[in-house]
Write a structure and sequence with these properties.
With about 170 residues, the protein is an alpha+beta fold. It folds into two domains: about 50 residues, SH3 type barrels; about 90 residues, no CATH class. The protein has five helices and seven strands, in the order E-E-E-E-E-H-E-H-E-H-H-H. The strands form two sheets. A five-stranded antiparallel sheet has the order 4-3-2-1-5, with no helix packed on it. A two-stranded parallel ribbon has the order 6-7. Strand 2 and strand 3 form a beta hairpin. The two termini are about 40 Å apart. The C terminus is likely disordered.
Length: about 170
Amino acid sequence: MSAEREVSAGDRVQFTAPYRAEHIANRQLGAVEQTDAKGNLQIRLDSGREVHFNLHEHPHLDYGYAVTSHSSQGATADRVLVHVDTEQAHEQLIDSRLAYVSVSRGRYDAQVYTNDAEKLGEGLGRDVSKQSALETEHEIGARDQDQGIGSADHQSVTESHEHGEGYGMGH
């Protein structure tokens, strides 16, 4: 662990480095089932598998109550809380991919919290889809014109996100 953490039975934890000896991937989540004064841990991974090890052998753990959208890829939770501070987050990280990855993790519910719904809506409307390397410049220009990129059509998309449609946001 990069900083000292105290863990107890019931705590949610996340591995911050792969643990190859136990076949645990980086950012894998679990819950502490048992611990002792010598640093021995018993963790039940979210996959259901149980692992036993000593923190001195693998100290790369952190609390797993809140995770980044990057870490949550491939994971599903019953409910998701997404926090995006538009003043603190790098502008290029607020885009349609963030919206999809963050909100789609929730099985039943997703709540989005932000300091600026208008700015967040504009950012989440930014499409970052990669195009095929085989597309010609002519095809890209024609596609962009058909999609109205850079025109009033783009503004209407931004306006719909501004009002929170599809993202569970309110003012």
